[in-house]
Design goal:
With about 260 residues, the protein is of the alpha/beta class. Helix content is about 45%, strand content about 15%. Strands 3-2-1-4-5-6-7 form a 7-stranded parallel β-sheet, sandwiched between helices. Helix 5 links the parallel strand 5 (about 140-145) and strand 6 (about 185-190). Helix 1 (about 20-30) packs across helix 8, helix 3 (about 75-85) runs parallel beside helix 4 and helix 4 (about 110-140) runs parallel beside helix 5. The radius of gyration is 17 Å and the shape is globular. The termini are far apart.
């Protein structure tokens, strides 16, 4: 075989939460490797801006912008339908969007806050997987990638509910990997450590927090979004053809 292991030519990828941060970096790298990409987040203008940037870099028609809230099942259905209408198929799903509306002890979280975290970080991924998996299974080919977190591997006195949701994502991937494996549809997670994104801005903009964080990381720094994007390309491509149900930890070594 002479084909590049990372070649995504002809593939179509939906990336949620892709107007910034890890999602945007992942969409750009998927496009760089040949994929058509669908940019989605809550705000259409933000999606339009990223799609225009990708089209300018990789050719007109490479990206589609379609806003959708992960909390709205009908909106996610519209996202998948719009992707099929424009590109004809879905080969790769990157469930990157997430939320964390509560910062504090798990013992003090209100029911509605806990439900929102679980709905946005777990149930929405389940919905999207259900929406795209049938065509992948029919073709006997597909890759589903959930961006989880090393929080799912550890306890915390301030983001415990978020960590519960991210641990659930690991199991969501494992379970769907078992169910869809016979049809050659792979489901994997990425577990980033602290990455320089807007989502984690409160941590890395605080000099004291970032100093403490960096001192605890073997690589002595936080990660950058494109350092997660490379793993997304790997999991989307033939390079990871024998990998499913796994969680790739990319954290500068902090969990070791």
């Amino acid at each position: 075989m002479n084909q590049d292991l990372f070649d995504l030519t002809g593939k179509v990828a939906i990336v949620t939460g892709s107007s910034r941060g890890i999602g945007k970096a992942s969409a750009i790298e998927l496009a760089r490797h040949g994929a058509k990409v669908v940019i989605s987040s809550r705000k259409q203008d933000a999606c339009d801006a990223v799609a225009a940037e990708i089209d300018a870099a990789f050719g007109q028609g490479t990206a589609l912008a379609h806003a959708a809230s992960i909390s709205d099942k009908a909106a996610l259905g519209g996202l998948v339908a719009a992707t099929r209408q424009r590109f004809g198929r879905v080969d790769v799903l990157v469930c990157n969007a997430a939320s964390n509306p509560y910062y504090g002890p798990l013992a003090g979280i209100a029911d509605d806050q806990f439900r929102k975290i679980l709905d946005n970080n777990v149930l929405s991924n389940h919905w999207l997987i259900q929406m795209v998996a049938p065509e992948m299974r029919a073709r006997k080919d597909g890759s589903i990638i959930i961006v989880s977190s090393i929080g799912g591997l550890r306890g915390s006195d301030v983001i415990g509910a978020y960590n519960v949701s991210k641990a659930a994502d690991f199991q969501l991937a494992r379970n769907y990997a078992v169910e869809y494996g016979p049809d050659n549809v792979r489901v994997n997670c990425i577990a980033p450590g602290l990455i320089r994104t807007d989502f984690a801005r409160a941590l890395w903009e605080d000099p004291g927090r970032i100093k403490a964080a960096n001192e605890s990381v073997p690589l002595r720094r936080i990660g950058e979004p494109d350092e997660i994007a490379g793993a997304v390309v790997f999991l989307a491509s033939r390079a990871s053809a024998f990998m499913t149900g796994q969680a790739m930890v990319i954290d500068g070594g902090v969990t070791i």
